């Protein structure tokens, strides 16, 4: 288990954080969920492979059949690989390695019944063979049977009680099986065993989020950022988390650092601009908002924020241009129409101001209806 490095597949730019000026929490709470849910699922992390199987020490792997299996692999003749692995297992009935090799190839061919049976037989032959238990867990998780994947992983823990990555796998399986508290307990253990691994802290954040523990979620994300000081993405996630908790001033330092490390990320610049504007640093806010708009001109919230920033500076014509873009991209944003109405009025466009105000009132009335969320 040593040397296992998890890959966090997160993309800040793919997450639409819709901020509305004047709302208590500027970023949708669900945005952090979407970021954390991009952690790879357990079936991706513990997927067995022929190469890993053949790395296991086993006398059976000196047989010429293994050479034939490798040759079949190079030509992608998977059915031949399976047939040969069956022969190898028959030739060496007491070989846990041969059974695991058969299980891996059957797994790749989605012959899950045969794969599961092969891994279970391997575990009976060699009860301390962790590869077999990982294979059993992989077969269950790839089918969405996350609760059934937990027992073989627990067996791995009995054999390797200090393996943080196994606690990580267990946490994710437990969360996907709707066993939230159990998932959090496993994640805490993983983070305690591997405190310098950001992935462990992100898994803990995911688990705490599932339990509704907002502060604990933030603390875990902060730890992930702390152990990844050069990761702009981690800093961005931390900043977004502060925004979600309406702790705008605290969001600025990590977002400022993230912007330096991710200068072409429109979302980071847009959110940083929003935060700076919220604390009265309008000039600096405009710089970042304009940068965000130039990087992604179809992102509506940045135009809304930019319009309000121009409004604060008395730059009414610039505000009109920005807010017109905002209402075009976010036609259901009541606040964007409201601000546009004010700016039309400031530039002497009374008829346009009345029209925009009417649209804002219409949206306000719609949101006030039962069943509608403001």
Describe the structure.
By secondary structure, the protein is mostly helical. It has a domain at 231-374: Tetratricopeptide repeat domain (Serine Threonine Protein Phosphatase 5, Tetratricopeptide repeat, Alpha Horseshoe). The chain contains 21 helices and no strands. The chain has helices at 30-36, 42-45, 50-54, 64-74, 78-91, 96-108, 112-125, 130-142, 146-159, 164-176, 180-193, 198-210, 214-226, 232-244, 248-261, 266-278, 282-295, 300-313, 316-329, 334-346, 350-368. Helix 5 runs antiparallel to helix 6.
Structural class, from helix and strand content?
mainly alpha
Radius of gyration of CA atoms, rounded to a whole number:
27 Å
How much of the sequence lies in strands comes to under 5%
Order of helices and strands: HHHHHHHHHHHHHHHHHHHHH
C-alpha geometry = elongated
Round the mean pLDDT to the nearest integer and report it. 86
- Spans of at least 5 consecutive residues whose pLDDT stays below 50 are 1-30
What name does CATH use for the topology of the domain at 231-374? Serine Threonine Protein Phosphatase 5, Tetratricopeptide repeat
Oligomeric category:
single chain
Secondary-structure blueprint:
Blueprint: H1 30-36, H2 42-45, H3 50-54, H4 64-74, H5 78-91, H6 96-108, H7 112-125, H8 130-142, H9 146-159, H10 164-176, H11 180-193, H12 198-210, H13 214-226, H14 232-244, H15 248-261, H16 266-278, H17 282-295, H18 300-313, H19 316-329, H20 334-346, H21 350-368
């Amino acid at each position: 288990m040593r040397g296992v490095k998890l890959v966090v597949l997160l993309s800040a730019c793919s997450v639409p954080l819709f901020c509305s000026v004047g709302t208590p929490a500027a970023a949708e709470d669900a945005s952090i969920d979407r970021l954390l849910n991009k952690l790879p699922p357990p079936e991706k992390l513990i997927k067995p492979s022929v190469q890993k199987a053949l790395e296991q020490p086993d006398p059976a792997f000196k047989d010429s059949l293994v050479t034939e299996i490798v040759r079949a692999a190079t030509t992608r003749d998977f059915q031949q690989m399976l047939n040969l692995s069956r022969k190898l297992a028959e030739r060496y009935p007491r070989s846990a390695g041969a059974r695991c090799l058969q299980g891996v190839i059957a797994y790749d061919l989605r012959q899950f019944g045969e794969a599961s049976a092969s891994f279970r037989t391997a575990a009976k032959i060699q009860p301390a063979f962790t590869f077999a238990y990982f294979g059993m867990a992989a077969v269950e998780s790839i089918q969405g049977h996350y609760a059934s994947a937990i027992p073989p992983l627990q067996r791995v823990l009995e054999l390797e009680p200090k393996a943080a990555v196994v606690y990580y796998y267990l946490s994710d399986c437990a969360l996907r099986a709707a066993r939230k508290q159990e998932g959090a307990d496993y994640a805490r253990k993983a983070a305690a065993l591997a405190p310098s691994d950001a992935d462990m802290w992100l898994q803990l954040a995911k688990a705490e989020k599932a339990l509704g523990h907002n502060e604990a979620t933030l603390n875990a994300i902060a730890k992930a950022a702390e152990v990844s000081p050069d990761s702009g993405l981690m800093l961005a996630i931390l900043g977004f988390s502060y925004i979600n908790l309406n702790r705008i001033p605290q969001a600025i330092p990590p977002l400022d650092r993230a912007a330096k490390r991710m200068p072409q990320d429109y979302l980071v610049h847009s959110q940083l601009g929003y935060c700076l504007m919220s604390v009265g640093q309008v000039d600096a806010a405009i710089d970042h908002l304009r940068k965000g708009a130039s990087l992604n001109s179809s992102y509506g919230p940045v135009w809304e924020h930019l319009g309000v920033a121009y409004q604060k500076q008395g730059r009414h014509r610039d505000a009109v241009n920005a807010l017109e873009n905002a209402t075009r991209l976010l036609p259901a944003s009541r606040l964007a129409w409201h601000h546009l109405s004010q700016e039309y009025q400031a530039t002497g466009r009374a008829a346009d101001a009345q029209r925009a105000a009417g649209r804002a009132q219409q949206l306000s009335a719609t949101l006030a209806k039962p069943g509608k969320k403001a």
